[in-house]
């Protein structure tokens, strides 16, 4: 399945729609092996809350 949206992490990884190999998980953060790794070891760490952009964090979620 090819994902064509603009928020793979929330829509696919966090939602459980695509199978991910979880490395670590906390209340706020999820770390998993990249589904299409570029590097031999390629782990993605994402916030569980949707963050549009690091340049658009606003006052919350610092
Ligand atoms: Zn998101």
Blueprint of the fold:
Blueprint: H1 8-14, E1 22-25, E2 29-33, E3 43-47
Antiparallel strand pairs: 1-2, 2-3
This protein binds zinc ion (ZN).
Describe the structure.
By secondary structure, this protein is an alpha+beta fold. It has one domain (8-52): HIT-like (HIT family, subunit A), CATH 3.30.428. Helix content is 11%, strand content 23%. The protein has one helix spanning 8-14, and strands at residues 22-25, 29-33, 43-47. It has a three-stranded antiparallel sheet, with no helix packed on it. Strand 1 (22-25) and strand 2 (29-33) form a beta hairpin. It is globular. The model has no long low-confidence stretch (mean pLDDT 89).
């Amino acid at each position: 399945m090819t994902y064509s949206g603009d928020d793979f992490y929330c829509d696919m990884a966090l939602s459980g729609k695509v199978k991910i190999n979880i490395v670590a998980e906390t209340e706020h953060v999820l770390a998993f092996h990249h589904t299409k790794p570029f590097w031999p070891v390629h782990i993605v760490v994402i916030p569980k809350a949707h963050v549009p952009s690091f340049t658009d964090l606003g006052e919350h979620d610092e």
